[in-house]
Specification:
Oligomer: heterodimer
Mean pLDDT of chain A: 91
Radius of gyration of chain B: 25 Å
Strand order of the largest sheet of chain B: 1-2
Helix content of chain B: 55-70%
Largest sheet of chain A: 5 strands, mixed
Strand order of the largest sheet of chain A: 16-15-17-12-18
Structural class of chain A: alpha+beta
Radius of gyration of chain A: 27 Å
Low-confidence stretches of chain B: none
Number of helices of chain B: 12
Distance between the termini of chain B: 6 Å
Number of strands of chain B: 2
Number of strands of chain A: 21
Largest interface: A-B, 61 and 67 residues
Strand content of chain A: 15-25%
Shape of chain B: flat
Low-confidence stretches of chain A: 12-24
Chain lengths: ~550, ~350
């Protein structure tokens, strides 16, 4: 009897706990569903896009890049330029003037010494930082002539300074971290890497439970004002569409980043607002034009043009991406650096056939495949193991066969390995290779079309895997690196873009932008492609 | 008995070493942790070369294993790439309690694991207890009422549940009880995590968030256990000594629970003993679906990053647990079956 009574009481208690109405609270909370938990918060060690976004709220850079891809001053009094003397006439010195009212969250002032310390930490051999670019190759020194002046001297003019340097690696608090480095010899294991306290953002870390959530709350001493929200809650969810969509559909999450086109479509139907922001990435074909490794047909620009015109890329975008993302006409799609009115080659199989015929590639032996001088038009189309690329390969194989082009497809785990590591793309084992590439977004600088980057035994790390070498493009790419005038640099990129288009060395397949979903209760969320959470201080929720 | 335990533990040492070497070599062969460092872009070649040197990944695999095992504080390394080994190592090795540092989070591997272990144990032990209780009821009832409608219905349920992939059960429950119930205006369950930030972290929230993952694991596990218990019970209740007990006039309850069940439980103890160590590894799929912050999800996340310090720590934890629980199971036999003696 006693046991039964105990059982009933226990059951009753459990049911009461489960069914008890919880107290509604007035806290303004926005929940962001995150399919990747940050591995660290220290920008020096970050490799994840997801982690970098959280850091935007905890540690401010000198300037944010806003949703129009324009710089917005945060720690500096103004954005350096040649006009205000922030950039020297020869482009080799960049000077930042810091505000005199900026403070770490513990009340200590943020000074130029913190910037020099950050540079020192990037270059310290005992720190296993994720990347030293561009500090190791482009920067000669970082100095602090006074408490509010930071001077960066380059080895040679370095135009991409605006979106690299301290924008990617914001200043760290020297007063808090120097003692740790003095004691341990490294920052690698500092607790600060997982708290960023003291920080310099509008928010500070409230709590972080590994594998579950991060909670950010308004920080103290932020000079830009108080956030409108009481908490931003990052909920770690599974990286499959189902769990993330369920959280967004039910209101368990308010913001969902990095969605697939299919998930975005499903969420739109549930009443969520979707936003597409440029990421700099474009999925595209890199056509091998290296005479030593490419099929002879690939060396003829008209054959390459025929390939671009023979492939119905809009249909791929419509079928596989539900038409959410356009076919890019430029390697710099959706940025000011794309040539004006950039359009992709039209799908025109008849024109493609004519180009091939005119180039001498005809089916002379009646085997269904075009040939020339005894060489069959059989092309190697390679990609990584990503499923959507395999789908594209299958469609291309079928549609090209109708034009008399035989396509052999291959997929590799080590697709991105360098020439030195024997990577299939780097060693030129392809005629068409598909991957998603971005320049130094949001800066347009790119090395992948430079002659000096063609990989070889002497240059095993070279990044120009197409083997493309055009003197005009090469010279323009070198010139833009030294051009500090933004308008002039933009014009240079328009020229480069046009030449790449005419030479058909890169063919855009889809614009690989980031897609966000937001519930209608969230207000003022303006995601930037470069610093997505740059205006989190202004986020709000409707009552 | 004491000598037996010591002998078993000594025998386990070479086994653990062999397992650790095998796992270490296999993990290293899985891929290059520096290929992307978990990011969106391939790692820059200059950074890859520097990190390989700094993290000691440029050393031969057996040398890396040796450092993992006994540490590297007795050797010097070239961190700045000038060809001169100038910096002493900082690792003590697992034999001195240092499981290494995560390549990606830079935290001690064992700390990362221990942060997650309580969550996994909470989920898995709860699921295991509920599974055993339900499986015992189903197994015993099915055996006692063999071929009745109830037995057939429970057997049918068991076969269906046993055949279903766990992700289907997980997503099915998520879709019905979290998404659809909310859509229909019914009281619904949360989609994942361990509490709702708007409500705060309470016992109520924890219980609510545990319901779906526990139910998922239980549905899958209960099927196998109940079939096992049913067949053992059937074997025992048809044996001679049960018939004798009945002939002596003992009550059915006494026969069933005092005589039949204890003997039927002996093989079950083996099964539970084998299963328990794997509870530490968590429920990989379920934890992922319901965003449960346990070791299962940790393993998957760090496997994608090829973060071998954490992976080695987790796998060695399970290896040691398997050996210990097997020993405990063997020892439990002596309590369950007095005929068994170890010397």
């Amino acid at each position: 009897m006693k046991r039964r009574l105990l059982f009933v009481l226990t059951l009753g208690l459990m049911l009461t706990l489960v069914a008890a109405p919880t107290l509604a609270q007035d806290k303004k909370v926005v929940t962001v569903s995150y399919t990747q938990e940050p591995l660290t918060l220290n920008p020096l060690y970050i490799t994840q896009w997801f982690a970098a976004n959280v850091v935007d709220m905890l540690l401010t850079p000198p300037w944010f890049i806003d949703d129009n891809l324009q710089p917005v001053a945060v720690q500096v009094t103004e954005i350096p330029s040649t006009e205000n003397g922030g950039i020297s006439a020869d482009g080799t010195v960049m000077t930042m003037k810091l505000r005199d009212d900026i403070k770490w969250s513990d009340g200590e002032p943020i000074t130029s010494a913190d910037y020099v310390f950050t540079y020192d930490m990037l270059m310290l051999d005992k720190n296993t930082v994720s990347s030293r670019f561009p500090w190791d190759t482009k920067v000669k020194s970082v100095t602090a002539p006074d408490a509010t002046t930071v001077v960066v001297t380059f080895n040679e003019p370095f135009a991409p300074w605006l979106t690299t340097l301290f924008t990617a690696s914001p200043a760290m608090p020297k007063h808090a971290l120097q003692p740790i480095v003095d004691k341990d010899g490294t920052l690698d294991t500092a607790d600060w890497n997982r708290t960023l306290d003291p920080g310099s953002g509008a928010f500070k870390l409230g709590q972080w439970e590994s594998g579950s959530f991060l909670s950010l709350v308004p920080a103290d001493n932020f000079w830009g004002g108080k956030p409108k929200l009481d908490e931003v809650f990052f909920r770690v969810v599974a990286d499959d569409g189902t769990s993330q969509n369920a959280a967004l559909e039910t209101g368990d999450a308010d913001i969902g980043p990095f969605l697939t086109a299919a998930d975005a479509d499903a969420l739109e139907k549930q009443g969520l607002v979707t936003t597409v922001t440029p990421s700099g990435y474009n999925e595209g074909w890199f056509l091998n034009v290296n005479p030593e490794t490419a099929h002879p047909a690939m060396l003829d620009v008209n054959v390459r043009k025929a390939l671009a015109m023979a492939f119905n890329r809009q249909k791929i975008v419509d079928d596989l991406l539900l038409g959410k993302l356009p076919v890019p006409g430029s390697y710099w799609e959706a940025t000011p650096y794309a040539r004006p009115d950039a359009k992709p080659y039209d799908y025109d199989p008849e024109a493609a056939k004519k180009l091939l015929d005119d180039a001498g590639w005809v089916d002379s032996n009646g085997d269904g495949t075009r040939d020339k001088d005894g060489k069959e038009l059989e092309l190697r189309f390679i990609a990584s193991q990503r499923q959507i690329r395999k789908d594209v390969q299958a469609v291309v194989q079928q549609s090209f066969a109708e034009l008399g082009i035989k396509v052999e497809t291959s997929n590799y785990d080590n697709f991105f390995d360098t020439f030195g590591e024997g990577g299939p793309a780097a060693t030129g084992a392809f005629d068409i290779a598909e991957w998603s590439q971005n320049p130094d977004f949001p800066d347009p600088n790119s090395n992948v079309f430079l002659c000096s980057e063609i990989p070889s035994a002497d240059n095993p790390e070279g990044s120009n895997w197409t083997g493309y070498c055009n003197e005009k493009v090469d010279s323009l790419l070198q010139e833009q690196l030294k051009t500090t005038d933004t308008a002039k640099r933009t014009e240079l990129f328009h020229e480069i873009d046009q030449q790449l288009f005419d030479d058909v060395v890169w063919v855009g397949v889809w614009y690989d932008a980031d897609i966000w979903a937001t519930t209608k209760r969230v207000e003022n969320a303006r995601y930037s492609g470069a610093d997505p959470f740059w205006n989190a201080i202004n986020w709000d929720v409707t009552s | 008995m004491g000598r037996y335990i010591i002998r078993r533990l000594l025998q386990a040492i070479p086994l653990v070493l062999l397992v650790s070497l095998t796992i270490f070599v296999l993990l290293q062969a899985t891929g290059d942790p520096l290929a992307t460092m978990g990011g969106r872009s391939p790692t820059r070649p200059e950074d890859k070369a520097r990190l390989r040197r700094q993290l000691g990944l440029d050393k031969p695999i057996l040398e890396q294993y040796l450092y993992w095992l006994i540490g590297n504080d007795w050797a010097k390394f070239d961190l700045d790439g000038d060809g001169i080994a100038e910096s002493p190592g900082i690792r003590y090795g697992v034999l001195r309690g240092d499981f290494g540092t995560s390549i990606v989070t830079k935290q001690p591997a064992m700390k990362i694991i221990m942060d997650r272990l309580p969550n996994t144990l909470l989920l898995m032990v709860t699921s295991e207890i509920i599974t055993l209780v339900i499986a015992l009821v189903i197994g015993v009832v099915s055996a006692v009422r063999q071929y009745s409608f109830l037995d057939n219905a429970l057997s049918g349920f068991s076969f269906v549940a046993f055949s279903m992939p766990i992700f289907l059960v997980g997503f099915g429950l998520l879709y019905i009880f979290a998404v659809k119930f909310r859509e229909w205006g019914l009281p619904s369950l949360p989609t994942g995590g361990i509490f709702d930030p708007k409500e705060g972290r309470t016992l109520n929230q924890l219980v609510l968030h545990m319901i779906l993952p526990v139910a998922t694991i239980t549905i899958i596990s209960v099927a196998g256990y109940s079939r096992y218990i049913r067949s053992n019970m059937l074997e025992v209740i048809n044996s001679d000594y049960i018939r004798t007990a009945r002939a002596k006039g003992l009550s059915e309850r006494s026969i069933l629970y005092r005589h039949a069940f204890k003997n039927a439980a002996l093989p079950l103890a083996t099964l539970i003993g084998l299963d328990l160590p794997f509870l530490l590894g968590g429920a990989v799929v379920t934890e992922r679906i319901f965003a449960w912050p346990g070791t299962g999800r940790l393993f998957l996340d760090h496997l994608e990053l090829l973060d071998y310090s954490v992976l080695m720590g987790l796998l060695m934890l399970i290896t040691v647990a398997v050996i210990v629980f097997q020993l405990l199971t063997d020892l439990m036999y002596t309590w369950l079956d007095p005929r068994i003696r170890y010397s």
